[in-house]
UniProtKB/TrEMBL annotation, chains A, C:
Keywords: Oxidoreductase, Pyruvate, Thiamine pyrophosphate. GO terms for biological process: pyruvate decarboxylation to acetyl-CoA. It comes from the Bacteria. The lineage of its organism: Bacteria, Pseudomonadati, Bacteroidota, Flavobacteriia, Flavobacteriales. Residues 47-320 form the Dehydrogenase E1 component domain. Pfam families: E1_dh. This is Pyruvate dehydrogenase E1 component alpha subunit. One of its GO terms (molecular function) is pyruvate dehydrogenase (acetyl-transferring) activity.
TrEMBL record, chains B, D:
This is Pyruvate dehydrogenase E1 component beta subunit. The keyword Aminoacyl-tRNA synthetase does not apply. Its cofactor is thiamine diphosphate. SMART domains: Transket_pyr (SM00861). Pfam families: Transket_pyr, Transketolase_C. The keyword Cell division does not apply. Residues 11-186 form the Transketolase-like pyrimidine-binding domain. It comes from the Bacteria.
């Protein structure tokens, strides 16, 4: 597979698969306490839930090139990046369950995951994470490291003022910064052609005199290659990049989204070319690994995911009075 | 407003909103709606449901995620004589467009010496209680109430939602119209009696600057707004059983505040509790307390009670969130303390 | 002069000269009550004062193509556009003097001039006028007019989020909208190369798939040509444009700016190629007009400006209690 | 803090700020400054004057006009362990960056369960009185005070400016540091005695959560902040001649409010006037009145007085502006009314 190290490909397979497993489980667990009548505030996992099934290549193909010194900021749809970046899965799951053992002791929830140990953060305001990554890149440059900072965003976020201001700053200061635009065609119900005046956001790199890359077909291997170049450039002080990847949102914007705005045939056709299944086949076909070996990987993943859910479910809730703590340090 | 019985239907808050918009759009071509997911989706909280099919994409316009751009565009379009209704999906996002809202929408009429009119309605969803955490659960009533040049309303019941939205649309000033998610009567949230109520079919206006006594009583005045009004009414039932007869005032208008109704009530009850789903400091509890402490001081027989979110961001976990948002139980406790002084 | 109608060139000369006269007078009047010690709050014209001397070509070369049905939004440095757009000079001057006869009865001041009769407005927040013009363009399109809306901004404003969001909206909705970027090299003390990651903001047109134009050398005639094309395109529903013009700021950012950040030789060298003097010479050389005729124009301008200042100075102040009026209508 | 006499110099507010920044930057490499015109220009209101020459462009960084971008970048850099000081040139511009300020800077510590610390100082210039009109004359104290997660301070005198800025820089929480333009002692604005004062040369801290009694008295408590403290002191002089002995409290901290100092003062004087250069509704006068009406009700012998900008944008023309911003004369009148009740 084009000179990509087997180790990297397997790593990508593993994190994509972990994310998928984690989210397929979440899809079910989320419904607990929400049936027969769906009530967003009910059950052990209340609140909004944005799943990334289908979008795993964006996270894996980029983050395979990062270490824990590199920073990642993500969005309201953060699980695939969190998992790829190595966020503690037990604590992340516990956080989503609102437990005291969670990353934020239950204060953050699924849209507000913070794991400073692996330099991961995300948030619920579209576009807002981009300047945070610019700031991390600035810190990296100031401290003479070769660490990079990557902001993951949806294609909808590329129309926010934050996008423009951040890209201009990063380019002006030649920061080790990359923005990955996950074009899943939709911003909730608004299709890209109804939100974005250019077909490809990577074109917008011209507005900052930086590099723009496009990855077609939700392809993790292409994403790997393009990201490698962008990360190397960033590490070598050659400035920021925009990478746009065409990816796919299999589920509703959030769980419970009736998706009346979307053609019912769209998702089945997307799932047919699922990148995880495709990568699995490619790995086997290239003789990188046997079916049995991958089955072993898969079962380890399932175990890891199960462990995380067990941990979360069996953890304690915080005491009500803890709500008043942690405003200031 | 004359009610003709056969023309009254029970509607949810969201249907009341959509009906108000429809009726006004029917009679005034210059009204159009902009916002994220207000087209086919009908608004994440149902504020525009059905309107896209009725009026098409020219008048019910989905936008990119560019709140400064499209809220600013509403200002420009209003200055040209159109009457935009523009939705900021969650009030929590106001920070990305606040300059347009408070430096321009709010001030241009004044800065132009009255020459430029901006008949804009800014719809925005407020409120927590369903574990949507720190960036999607706020009401921020006071963040808007503090700034001159905006009328800010927050109706509770479907009847007021329709009437105040119509009044807002017809007003020639910018009006911030806050609707509470839980009071929209959506199928996928808590089902409350309060979110379903009688709404006349014809168009009518409810004034934008008047509070309403939703339960009268003699012993204590409880001022609430939206979900806090609902909780105050629940509390009043419990208190009644304990022999305390509370008067509940539904604030409805955040700015300007209807001082008269509040002061008259306190003149009668001599006790005041203000309940707010916004943050404590510099919030509704502050402003109403101050009005009464300066203009109704002699009516008071006891310290004023304040109940609000205790100056912390809204936490995710249900147990934590429950602890910070006031509810009927906390209101009962606060009133008991107040009247026992 | 390249097939440009004489009438248009003379119009441009006249408005440029009017603006220059108006501002040269303002430069002096502003100092009244501020000497020997400069106090920004003193004198009959208190507060900040941003003059546009040197930047007149941007306003004249564009607005010559506009009618009073077309909308203009301007910035904290608005006089050249206001004058070109036909804002009532008496009322504008009175406004700057804080008088009751002013455009806004003294409530607005120099940064907040509103003349809805000629569809002119401006404001003190950098970038904020851009979406207003987009909104006007949207209204124009909705009402099936062929009216256009033009936002004038400084090159500093091209790095605001408002710029990006507005351009994307205008392009997406194909609105009759133009943004004119007056590149005077400075945003207060910050030079363009320290604020902007591309040499030319017109390049940023690519990020929206619209037309971008560049006008060199502060040339009103070039500005005329480029603007003509952009306005025609807008009127013909061919979408928005970005025009950047290299122009010059002769004075400090505001009056009283010590300009310690700027090379003392810069301004004298700029004034040598003053566009108004140059246009005067070109008009005469092309035999469009005689010196005498231009002298007559000039003296009429001086008279008009004098009248405006007289009007302003002799007008009454508002009553203090009027401060409480006009919050709502 | 021990004062050593020979080490005290008279400084203006702006020099006190620049000195605080210099001294802290000298001892802590992780501090850097970002903002518009804070480099060679030294800050439009002199907050960073001289620092560019001392520390160079890596540590004193001019930025584009991209407040969301660079204030957001300060958050990202702080999360990595740096200590950014970032300037929002006028507080009036907060709307273009408010999302970064209140949804992220203010909440990330909480939302991360205390795991992410954001030691950021947000400098911003406030205040009117020099005809800078509606978009450049505000204080917006309460717009910031309302939001949980920010410490918000507004010192008046050079001594406090230096000490509170040092405390802000050393604090591990985000601090909004508001400096009043007129109190910076700039050569090109009104010259006030208050803007020039004794400042020890060595570094020292003044706590971020304490008010200060700047004049003691028995008859009435006047709470002010920044220019309103200065006007209150002037008013106190006039009142003294009329036989009214006012106590003046310089609030200093907008959030949290030092309740104790205020309540103790009112316990002594039994009369309270709150004066604010921010808008009336939902402002400082509201919050402090509410605190006293709920926690010091029995101390009060008269209704609480409120003096603030009467819910209008700030007009340009001097005669109009003078009518809306409170001053010593209005304070005297308000106090006289108050104590005569
Ligand atoms: C500033 C802001 N505006 C609106 C929203 C509401 N919202 C949440 S996600 C979303 C769509 C985002 O689309 P995109 O960036 O493409 O990401 P995706 O959901 O497709 O992953 C919107 C509009 C928000 N959270 N923040
Ligand atoms: C949002 C915002 N940020 C900062 C300022 C302060 N400010 C006023 S003018 C100016 C420079 C503007 O530069 P440019 O856009 O190039 O216009 P010019 O002054 O050169 O005409 C700045 C930073 C402001 N008014 N608004
Ligand atoms: Mg998307
Ligand atoms: Mg400029």
């Amino acid at each position: 597979m084009d000179n990509i190290r087997k180790k990297d490909l397997l790593w990508m397979y593993r994190v994509m698969k972990t994310s998928r497993c984690f989210e397929e489980r979440m899809e079910k667990e989320y419904l607990e306490g929400k049936q027969p009548i769906f009530n967003i505030g009910s059950g052990p996992v209340p609140g909004e839930m944005h799943l990334s099934n289908g979008q795993e290549p964006a996270a894996a193909g980029m983050i395979v090139h990062l270490t824990k010194n590199d920073t990642v900021t993500a969005t309201h749809r953060p699980h695939h990046e969190a998992i790829a970046k190595g966020v503690d899965l037990n604590k992340m799951t516990a956080e989503i369950y609102g437990k005291k053992t969670g990353l934020s002791k239950g204060k953050g929830g699924h849209m507000h995951l913070f794991d400073p140990k692996v330099k991961f953060s995300c948030g619920g305001i579209v576009g807002a994470g981009i300047p945070h990554a610019v700031g991390a890149a600035l810190a990296n440059k100031k401290r003479n490291t070769n660490w990079v900072a990557v902001a993951f965003i949806g294609e909808g976020a590329a129309n926010t003022g934050a996008f423009h201001e951040s890209l201009n700053l990063a380019a002006l200061w030649k920061l080790p910064f990359i923005v990955v635009v996950e074009d899943n065609s939709w911003a909730i119900s608004v299709a890209k052609e109804n939100s974005t005046s250019v077909p490809f956001n990577c074109t917008r790199a011209k507005a900052y005199d930086i590099n723009g890359y496009y990855v077609k077909n939700n392809d993790p291997v292409e994403m790997y290659k393009v990201s490698k170049e962008a990360v190397e450039r960033a590490r070598n002080d050659e400035g920021p990049s925009i990478i746009e990847i065409k990816t796919d949102r299999y589920l509703g914007h959030f769980q419970g989204d009736p998706e009346l705005y979307r053609n019912k045939k769209e998702v089945p056709s997307l799932i047919k070319k699922d990148p995880i299944s495709k990568l699995r086949k490619r790995l086997i076909k290239a003789n990188y690994v046997t079916i049995e070996e991958l089955d072993t990987v898969d079962s380890l993943i399932i175990k890891e995911v199960n462990t995380a859910y067990e941990f979360a479910k069996h953890s304690k809730y915080p005491e009500p009075a803890e709500a008043l703590e942690d405003v200031f340090c | 407003m004359e009610k003709t019985l056969e023309k009254i239907k029970k509607l949810t808050g969201s249907k009341a909103m959509a009906q108000a918009l429809k009726q006004e759009m029917d009679i005034d071509d210059s009204i159009f709606i902009m916002g994220e997911d207000i087209g086919k989706y009908g608004g994440i909280f149902g504020s525009t449901s059905g309107l896209y099919d009725l009026f098409g994409k020219e008048r019910v316009m989905d936008t990119p995620i560019s709140e400064t751009g499209f809220i600013g565009a509403a200002i420009g379009a209003a200055a040209e004589g159109l009457r935009p209704v523009v939705e900021l999906m969650f009030v929590d996002f106001h920070g990305v467009a606040m300059d347009q809202i408070y430096n321009h929408m709010a001030k241009i009429h004044y800065m132009s010496g009255g020459n430029v009119k901006l008949p804009i309605v800014l719809l925005t969803a407020v409120g927590g209680g369903y574990s949507d955490a720190a960036q999607h659960s706020q009401t921020l009533y006071a963040s808007f109430g503090h700034l001159p040049g905006l009328k800010v309303v927050a109706p509770t019941f479907p009847y007021d939602i329709k009437g105040m939205l119509i009044a807002a649309i017809r007003d020639n000033n910018p009006v911030v119209f806050m609707f509470h998610k839980t009071l929209q009567g959506l199928g996928w949230m808590d089902q409350l009696d309060a979110s379903f109520g009688e709404v006349p079919e014809q168009a009518y206006e409810v004034p934008l600057n008047k509070s309403k006594i939703v339960k009268s009583g003699e012993d204590v005045t409880i001022v609430g707004v939206q979900m806090m009004t609902v909780e105050a009414l629940k509390a009043a039932d419990i208190l009644a059983k304990k022999g305390i007869n509370a008067e509940v005032v539904d604030l409805r208008s955040i700015k300007p505040i209807d001082k008269e109704t509040i002061l008259n009530s306190v003149a009668k009850t001599h006790h005041l509790l203000v309940v707010d789903e916004d943050y404590l400091s510099y919030g509704i509890t502050a402003e109403i307390s101050a009005i009464v402490a300066s203009e109704g001081f002699n009516y008071l027989n006891a310290p004023i009670g304040r109940l609000a979110i205790p100056d912390v961001p809204i936490p995710y976990s249900r147990v934590l969130e429950k602890n910070v948002i006031p509810n009927s139980e906390k209101i009962v406790n606060a009133v008991e303390k107040l009247v026992s002084v």
